[in-house]
């Protein structure tokens, strides 16, 4: 195997790994996905993760970007800063001192494929319309 072939194989493997790390989980809602991606990879001040979710899970949801922008949500972290909040009370982890979900919350409460609605873990903040 030549060096070029080795580099090409490595590039393909890394691309596959990136694809799997940033894919929505089965039944995962937009809010849980965006929250997980922002926590793991940060926000680049665009709707990158929302757009990825829409492309992979809800390709018919053409109005998602427009709905987010109409509510003042211009990037993925704005979803949580301005639009949506978790509905369960957080607890403080004794070991790390960080706020986290209580143990009985194991993640997304699931939505049907094709939906951009949040699961029941999320509620709209004051100025956001709950109609999705």
TrEMBL record:
Pfam family, one: DUF2695
Domain of life: Bacteria
Protein's name according to its UniProt entry: DUF2695 domain-containing protein
Biological source species: Georgenia ruanii
């Amino acid at each position: 195997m030549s060096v070029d072939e080795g580099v090409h194989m490595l590039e393909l493997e890394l691309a596959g790994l990136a694809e799997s790390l940033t894919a929505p989980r089965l039944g995962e809602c937009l809010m849980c996905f965006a929250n997980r991606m922002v926590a793991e990879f940060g926000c680049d001040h665009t709707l990158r993760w929302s757009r990825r979710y829409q492309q992979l899970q809800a390709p018919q949801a053409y109005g998602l970007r427009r709905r987010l922008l109409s509510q003042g949500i211009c990037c993925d972290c704005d979803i949580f800063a301005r639009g949506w909040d978790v509905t369960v009370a957080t607890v403080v982890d004794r070991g790390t001192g960080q706020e986290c979900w209580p143990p009985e919350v194991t993640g997304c409460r699931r939505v049907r494929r094709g939906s951009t609605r949040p699961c029941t873990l999320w509620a709209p903040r004051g100025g956001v319309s709950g109609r999705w």
